[in-house]
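Q: I'm teaching a short session on how sequence maps to structure, and I want students to see two examples side by side rather than one. Could you give me a first protein with its sequence written out and its structure tokens following it? Keep the formatting plain so it prints cleanly on a handout.
A: Of course. Example one:
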Amino acid sequence: MHYDPHDAFVAPARAGAQIWRLVAGLLTVAAIVIGLGIALDTVFVSSGALADRPGRPITVLVSLFAFGFLSIGAMVAARLLHHRPGLSLIGPPARALRDGLRVLAALAILQIVLGLLPPWGDGGTGISPRENLPFGDWLSILPLSLLAVLVQTGSEEVLFRGYLQQQLAARFSARWVWLVLPSLAFGLLHYDPASMGGNAWLIVAWASLFGLAAADLTARTGSLGAAIGFHAFNNFFAILVVSATGPLDGLALFSMQVDMADPALRPMIALDIAALFVSWLAARLALRV
């Protein structure tokens, strides 16, 4: 594995690599997220602005933009506890932008190719997308929707592949520590047995592998650009194109009525894991890493 760029990416974290700083930093992130979340709730929910509007576009937009609290918290923690710039969590800006655009282009081409291959239609699953938003309405809010997805995915990457991965790598030389632990934490945050039933741990496995792929791309390139592009493209389709019917389908062009606890979904989850592997390879090919 060619992880030389990762050394420069981690360098700003080395001066404040003590574990107590990381623990205090994560507590700081939690406090900021909770505090800003309460403020957001007061403004939008308690005022009645979002009352009785679950799944509506405005509700989903607010939910996605609220993920920005993660990056705010991580950058504040980096500055206060590790005495380094918040932007050091991202890496060189020009490289991040270049890598992100390359990954987005590669995954767009891959998606077109996969869309031309059989099986077509519902693939024998019996689950067919239905129109969720009229195309004109969807298109009119698409710029704001794209920005919301970028904030959501970028903020998760700043916390997990930026702050957490950098600080662990600065403290521990063993790759499994800074590659695997943040990825497992990312995966466990997707654990939802109430709605996913017996499939919950499969979703955790998929999310953990997704986190591992993003961590690997970050280590190979030395910035968050590739990981953000990788993550944003995935969520663009899952949130804005075809979404499972539920609280996050308000921005999607199409939606599907899916019971996430249905055991019949397990082969589809396995296919998603295979598609994740192919996407990771496509990203690496585009980045030449």
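Q: Perfect. Now a second example for contrast.
A: Example two:
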Amino acid sequence: MTKQVNIFSLFVFLFLNLNAQTSLETEKIINAKDYGIYPNTFENIAPLFNKMVDEIAHFPLVKLVFEKGRYDIWPESSPKREYFISNTSTERECPSKIKTIALLFENFKDIVIEGNGALFMIHGKMINFAFDHCENIKIQNISFDYERPTMSELTFDEVTDRIIIATINPSSTYTIIDNKLKFYGEGWTMKHDHAILIDPELSAFYYSKFSPLRKSKATELAPFKIKFKGDFSRFKFKKGQVLTVRDPIRDQVGAFIAYSKNVVLQNVQMHYMHGMGIINQFNENVTLDKVIVKPRKETGRKIAAFADCFHFSGCKGQIIIENCETGGGHDDPVNVHGTHLKITKRVSDDKINIRFMHGQTYGLDAFFRGDTLDFVHAKSLQIYGTAQVKEVKKINDRDLQLTLTNTIPKGFQIGDVVENITWTPSVIIR
């Protein structure tokens, strides 16, 4: 009997000791300051951050902690990756898919990123943060902004058919060359323009044009106060309205979360996102809680997002968007969708070639072994068959070849489409 009690006691001791070790592991704290990363230095933290991330990448159950304050990141020392991102750019608009990422987390598992109210200030053009092939990852109590947002803003002070006097937002750096206003930033100039006009009294956004001002004669009356002389009679500008203008090319995005599982963003403030908003691409289970997309009040800016604020392409599991706010986006607050790929060739009874047809969506890993797809008539969008994917072969960035576990269904036609229904989420917005 004593021997049995001793064996039981030993088992209990080992069990409790194992749990204690696990508990200690869950509380493993990594302080950014221990890697020389301090707030409010106004220096580039990228080299130190990258070194830190490399060292902790394989640590189990990590909480990465930043002190409150401002951290600056420049693109020169930041990692670069080739990312094909849904709904961003065509081959002509942006031939290179090399992206620059301020905070990059690759293949991380069981990590919490605690900002403690930290503000990460982005310089140039970058993805604010990216989670690539991560699992059980959470980022919280953190803010992002651009030192020089790629959106330029000006408020109309006086408007007549021939004269406009406008005040440019202090963040919108500019110059006047040969009496022409030219916006520029850190390593870029605005080569093309896409404009949205805002009526603050109505909280209304309208498609507009920058060309009337671009073609007019510009004179600086005082810093950030410009007089435009030209023909404005055909344009319905009014005093107090704000013209927001940007280059239309989506060469980066605000945040990129891809091929990841169990992702949580909590109390995250995105004060500016270039190119697109927060892009979720083929993720499983994503929660956005208290994610705010708005400019910082003290900046006086109106726009915080280049395009969609929250974008989900080909995700599955549960998407939860709760207690969030979007104010100042040039496009949708929320966009959740899959992608139809066009059938271009019947290779055999169990093999088809398919193609990405959306100009700004291609090159993605859109199917995986074991996924279920629907065959859909292109003209009616009626489903007429289902199959399972046995093998995926990438032909090029636009074309894939799928080998199926069963034969192609009756009614099949070249030009029909397939949809990956395995990657179809349920969505709660509250």
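Q: What should students look for in example two?
A: Point them to this: The first helix runs from residue 2 to 26. Also worth mentioning: Confidence is low (pLDDT under 50) at residues 1-24.
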